[in-house]
Amino acid sequence: MGQPLITVIIPIYNGETFIDKCLASVTSQTYPNLEIICVVNGSTDSSVLKINEWKEKDSRVRLIVSDIADLGNASNIALDASKGEYIAFVDVDDWVMPEYISSLMGGIQKGYKMCRSNCIMYDGRRNHKAYQNQYSRYVSIREATWLLPFRHTGLYARALFSELRYLEFSYYEDLSLWPILVARANGVYYIDEPLYYYNQTNVNSIMSIKDERHLVLDKVFDFILSHITEELDREVNLLVTCLFVQSFWTSNIQYVPRTKAGINYMKRIYQVINNKLVGYYYVVQQLNVPPSIKSEMIDFYKYGIKGFNI
User: How far apart are CA 148 and CA 71, in angstroms?
Assistant: First the structure.
């Protein structure tokens, strides 16, 4: 029996300075049966020229050009065009170890639909592992709260994306599918070896841009909650609650301005999550934060903007 075809999806927005290192690492995989789809989306640099050069070197590289500068849209274009039985994602400014795909496939072959690895976070000065004090094992839905909601560092059975695509024209598109994929896969097999290098130095990264385009978690969680119902396992709903607490209160809140736009955003957030986050009070009480912060988080869930100091 031959090796299953694996599609590696690489969305590219103005990534000319990163393409060579990224594609050199992907085309050097010890797992050879790959389809490498590069979607150049809305780029104004020489990314298309670079990918065409790589197509001449390696027939597994495919190029799709889109004039829409949106990561979710680029990912969906590649998913629609993909032929692989399994799907992996690599960001153009990142790179992977030679055994990245083969190791993830080894996890899949243990009987799982999703496999994730540890990764190295590179900030330009030092490398550090994303996950500390972990070990390779099956991670249940309930336990998956410590895994970062990335689409990269993982390998996914194609069937998980059946009638499901990333949220488009929105930041945090990774987050929009993460709990749904975990639920469909019934958990994740985790490999503690760091096989993926996550580059945090790219100035074109959306997370390096601090403006009101980050005020979209209402849209993201409306999308998630429309796919997650009360009838599903309670653990799935708890995962969604944990993701909201982590993404909004520990990260997104820093982008909320003390303006009318910020107030309106908080109102939209409250409207989306009101009485829909299973175990919210329990999750908040487990946090290692001052009691005053916990009270603020709980009051917002109870009363909305009236219970929040903005």
Answer: 18
Q: How far apart are CA 284 and CA 242, in angstroms?
A: 9
Distance CA 79, CA 67 (A): 17
Tens digits of residue pLDDT in 194-225: 999 999 886 655 445 556 788 999 999 999 99
Tokens of 109: 């072959």
Cα–Cα distance, 298 to 126 (Å, whole number): 37
Helix (H) or strand (E) holding 36: strand 34-41
Token pair of 146 as six digits: 């410590």
Alpha helices per DSSP H over 186-245:
217-227, 234-244
The predicted model gives 171-190 an average pLDDT of: 95
The domains of the chain, with CATH numbers, are 6-208 (3.90.550.10), 212-307 (no CATH)
Q: Contact, 242 vs 178, CB < 8 A?
A: no
What's the pLDDT tens digit per position in 131-153? 999 999 999 999 999 999 999 99
Give the residue among 9, 5, 6 at the shortest CA–CA distance from 166: 9
pTM, two decimal places: 0.93
Which tokens in the block code for residue 12?
A: 């590219």
Indicate the pLDDT class of residue 276, thresholds 50, 70 and 90: very high
2: DSSP letter: P
